[in-house]
Amino acid sequence: MKTITLKVEGTSQSQWSTFVLELNLMKKAWKSYGVTVELKAPSINKIINLGTSNGEKSINYKKKRRNHIINIFR
User: Fold this and answer.
1) pTM of this prediction?
2) Could you tell me the pLDDT band of residue 58, with boundaries at 50, 70 and 90?
3) How far, in Å, are 19, 22, 46, 58 from residue 36 at the CA level?
4) Which among 60, 44, 40 is positioned nearest to 52, based on CA atoms?
């Protein structure tokens, strides 16, 4: 196993996310050649999951409840 350590400084949050997503693309591309790449970074799974989604939102919005006081005065 060979290890490369990258120290990235001076990037914005957007640039960092893009950088991580590009590394993930390289990881996927090399997998067909039998190369296994392991990426480690803070919140990397969240970045990859949000960056590779097809626009589907996994957020469950709460339904607006009617005010119970309004129901009393009807």
Assistant:
1) 0.68
2) low
3) 19, 16, 20, 29
4) 44
